[in-house]
Amino acid sequence: MHAGWTCRPDSDTLPAHRLVASRETRLIRIEDVSLSFGGIRAVDGCSFEVAEGSITGLIGPNGAGKSTLFNIVAGVLKPDSGRIVFDGETITGLPPHALFHRGLVRTFQIPHEFYRMTVRENLMIVPPEQTGENLFSSWFRWGQVRRQDAEIADKVDEVLAFLNIAHVADELAGNLSGGQKKLLDLGRTMMTDARMVLLDEPGAGVNRTLLGAITTAIRRLNEERGYTFCLIEHDMDVIAELCDPIIVMAQGSVLTRGTMADIRANPAVREAYLGHPETAEAE
Amino acid sequence: MELSGLFGYLVFFLSTVSIYAILALGLNVQWGLTGQINIGIAGFFAVGAYTTAILTAGPNAAHVGGFEFPFVVGAAAAIVTSGLIAVLIGMITVNLRSDYLAIATIGIAEIIRFVFQNEQWLSHGVRGISDIPRPFHDGQGSGYVFLALVLACVAVVYFLVERARLAPWGRVLRAIRDNEDATEAAGKNVRLFRLQAFVFGSAIMGFAGALYAHFIGFISPDAFEPVFATFIVWAMLIAGGSGNNKGAILGAIVVWLVWSGTETLAARLPPEYATQASAARVLLVGVLLELVLLLRPQGMLPEERPRPIARRKD
Q1: Among A22, A103, A192, B71, which is least packed, fewest CB within 10 Å?
Q2: In this complex, do A192 and B309 lie within 8 Å of one another by their Cβ atoms?
Q3: Residues 95-124 of A with CB under 8 A from B
Q4: Is position A14 within any domain?
Q5: pLDDT, tens only, A201-236
């Protein structure tokens, strides 16, 4: 366990619940969530749970509502009905920044780097409650601000080394490759005490080598830091390698859930992806 | 006599440039750092100027005032009042996308100007407020005292703005400028930070307004037309270098040189060209702006990548 990873100096020791990743406890519960855009029911009575300590995969054909559901859980969209319970508390409708402080963080399908800032700065921004985020402290408590930035910079070095992108630390993030941006997105989740990370297609547009780095990072974060992951992914190799259980969504709700073997054997899943032979043309 | 006249003009020139530099520094917090398009600079400038004018000028039966408070009180009140108005406006507009914020702020600045133009009891309408005292020393040589004061003010504002830029506060604002959603996902209350940037920048503009009122000694709504108090400040910041606080100051110097230089030229033209000449001056600032945007789109001093402020532990 890298103690320096924790964002605040006073929280070096992780709470006990994270050291014992019990698969019995559910960290997040999605209860009958629906959201329509105009006439399209993007998410339609969707319910599922994610067990603490798991890496849960969320798959389904395009338009199944996965990303919309992510955006609802992450607080970007408000559902028409239903609720989200995180760690025993209802979080429906809370803004993303409030969810972040409860340990629920997310990455984006298209990398959302701060393109005119260096890779280092992209990570330095994340730790919460920085003294220098207060305008008056930036004027009158400069010494403390600088000391804290030094601590954060040390932590950034560790994260960059972990992700194997230390050599681009001082590049502008906008100049990174697509895969490196994905790693940077993942790196931002490591700059805080996350409990649950929503990953929206962490492998999309990433070459095989970098993909290996990303899956390794996810697994290590899960094992070493006790992060719970819920990830949307179209690359079945990534899903097979990382995820248990796997939840299949189709037409806005959950079709089935199970291990990779269960999913592979399920004819309904194949049908959802390929459509009925008769309706295949309509797809 | 000739030399002292030139010297006097230099003092006047530098005082004016300093006030514009403060305006450009305020705009740099909003546009350069956060990406907010405030086209209502004139409004906050006016609020600051009128606040201190009402509080510090001598009594006049035609409008409120006659408090004769010292400059420091007037300037502090100018900062607070323009800041408070920015809070009110910001709470409504801060979530607008940048182009909508631009439209909203144009309207708000004009509303403020019309209020001062029409509310006789408050601002003496178009006749304006006169006898606003020079700070600390009114009378012979007050120009020098004022120049020293206003240069010190530029230094203080530069320090505050530059430090805020280098601090994590500025880092969050630059992140918002690049990607709002990701900043929110990184746990920052984007709304709150944008409001802070808007209020901080506007309060600086209000402070500049206070200095202006004490510098000229007389203010009327004419002084807060968008061309003088908004357009020129934008030209200064863009020419100097958006995001660069030194650039904001440099831009104020260069654009004001062009602006006042052409005034001297225009004065030498035959009187029948007077109207065209004044229009041509505005045009010239526009041409300067075009040239900078074409040849040096990031301005004379492009935005610097902030150096790490961290102090490594030994």
Answers
A1: A22
A2: no
A3: 95-97, 100-101, 105-108, 112-118, 120-121, 124
A4: no
A5: 998 888 888 899 899 999 999 999 999 999 999 999
